[in-house]
Design goal:
about 35% strand, Immunoglobulin-like, Tumour Suppressor Smad4, eight-stranded mixed beta sheet, 3 domains, five-stranded antiparallel beta sheet
């Protein structure tokens, strides 16, 4: 707030809210001219809409109104001469649109950071602003010069990126023998406009030689702080009394494509069929995306389950025999409060890591969990949890049918996110393609580029990352059943000799 500045009423002591045109007494307010710092910042942010004509007049943009500043990062606490090269800078997110989600992820890439990258998250407070973050890095052992920190911010809505911004920070690593004056001059030549702030009873002192060229410095002191600006024109060397440096970095918003169009080939169950599987690969990668998926006994006609399981022995697939020890509805897999869960609904039971959980009691799946169907006879069907995806799980058979099939259980409408977060997976599953189900169909996601490809029978799968060669997409989870019915024309209930060879 500020006091009334009407020149015709110099004794008015009324306080005026920011942006108000009159004070409570009705006195009109005189606009305060913008500072040189605000004018220079406005010139930097100006972008011509087309080619610039030599005879066109120069138009300066008007300063942004109060509360309408562009989104930017405010970086403070940077000390180029920090002991041991260890740095901790404070990063504040300002002026983001109010429509953004309350959580913004920030990814950093720089040679100064441990492992070259870091990830943090901004959380919106109850006041509507954003909780600041503190970024740690070290310049120990680094050659002197300027280093970039590439910043990417994004927020997600319904597991998809809805807004995305980028920025680049330039950090100076000085020479060991550099003076504070040398460091500050280099910093000014990099950032042009510099804001030095003093807060909470601290002191900000700025000392420079004005004869060496124009310096654009903005000094702020608040909360009982002191700002001391000394432009000494004497010849000679002057050391600047800066402890830390602060500046603003504009955020550039990147267009995010919309994914509202429906999938060209909609299905809740499908299969990736490998015609020539190599060692360690499965002939069928069966895909399921339902709110609740039923595991049960294989039936050629009128099955009760979605996932049709059979016993594999030393001689291959056995549709009869031990397969009859599986219930038509043996277990359920669905999303629960603790993640993807499995529940026993059978007559014969199931074992999770050798223990029967009890009928009707869901248990969250864990990486490496061993699932045995049934509890009374060993080795009928044995599965293992090989990956906990951000949007589902992958199960592999670890019995005699290990080379025949594996299973994807994906949550409908859930995107894994990009960049893809790290998720626990065994080596056999880490090498498999990353898939998700959205807009009614299955998609392939390239981990490196973020490219999304709709899976359908006409899609050339050999061009997709981590997709095995000789693989085709089938619109059914069990395409071999359709081949048997079409080729043999079996009547209802007729026996089938060997489903695996078909």
């Amino acid at each position: 707030m500020k006091k009334c500045n009407n020149p015709q009423h110099p004794h008015c002591t009324q306080w005026v809210m920011p942006g108000a045109d009159v004070c409570p007494s009705g006195h009109g307010q005189v606009g305060v001219p913008p500072s040189s710092y605000e004018l220079l910042t406005a010139m930097r942010r100006a972008r011509p809409a087309g080619p610039v004509r030599s005879d066109a007049p120069l138009m300066l943009p008007e300063p942004a109104a109060h509360g309408q500043a562009e989104p930017h990062l405010h970086i403070s606490g940077f000390d180029p001469r920090a002991a041991g090269g260890r740095q901790t800078i404070k990063v504040e997110l300002r002026n983001l649109p109010a429509t953004c989600e309350p959580l913004v992820t920030m990814q950093l890439q720089s040679a100064l950071l441990p492992d070259g990258a870091a990830r943090h998250s901004f959380a919106r407070t109850l006041r509507g602003d954003w909780r600041p973050l503190f970024i740690e890095f070290s310049s120990r052992g680094k050659e002197h010069g300027q280093y970039r920190i590439e910043v990417e911010l994004y927020c997600q809505k319904e597991a998809r990126i809805s807004h995305k911004w980028v920025a680049t920070l330039v950090i100076l690593v000085p020479r060991p023998d550099a003076s504070l004056s040398d460091i500050h001059q280099t910093f000014l030549s990099t950032h042009k406009n510099v804001r030095v702030m003093a807060d909470d009873a601290s002191i900000a002192r700025v000392q420079a030689q004005s004869g060496g060229g124009r310096l654009d410095i903005d000094v702020h002191a608040r909360n009982a702080s002191i700002a001391h600006l000394n432009l000494d024109q004497r010849a000679g060397k002057v050391d600047l009394g800066f402890s830390t440096i602060a500046w603003d970095e504009d955020l550039i918003e990147i267009d995010v494509p919309s994914h509202a169009q429906p999938h060209p080939h909609q299905s809740a169950m499908a299969c990736l069929v490998n015609a020539a599987p190599e060692a360690g690969q499965q002939r069928q990668m069966r895909l399921f995306s339902m709110d609740e998926c039923v595991l049960g006994r294989f039936e050629l006609y009128d099955p009760e389950a979605d996932v049709l399981l059979t016993h594999f022995g030393a001689d291959g697939q056995d549709r009869d025999g031990l397969t009859r020890r599986l219930s038509g509805r043996h277990a359920l897999i669905r999303r629960g409060a603790g993640g993807i869960e499995i529940e026993d609904v059978s007559r014969y039971g199931l074992l999770l890591d050798g223990v029967w959980p009890g009928k009707g009691k869901p248990v969250a799946l864990r990486l490496g969990m061993r699932i045995e169907l049934t509890a009374s006879i060993k080795g009928v069907v044995v599965l293992s949890v090989t990956a906990l995806l951000p949007n589902g799980v992958i199960l592999h058979r670890i019995d005699e049918g290990a080379q025949a099939e594996c299973f994807y259980f994906l949550e409908p409408g859930r995107h894994p996110g990009y960049p893809v977060p790290a998720y626990p997976a065994q080596p056999i599953a880490a090498a498999m393609p990353l898939l998700f189900h959205q807009n009614g169909g299955f998609w392939h996601l390239d981990r490196a580029t973020g490219r999304e490809t709709a899976l359908m029978p006409s899609c050339p799968l050999e061009r997709l990352a981590q997709m095995p060669p000789h693989t085709r997409f089938a619109a059914e989870a069990y395409p071999e059943c359709w081949i048997v019915r079409t080729t043999l024309k079996l009547p209802h209930g007729a026996p089938l000799a060997d489903m695996h060879t078909a």
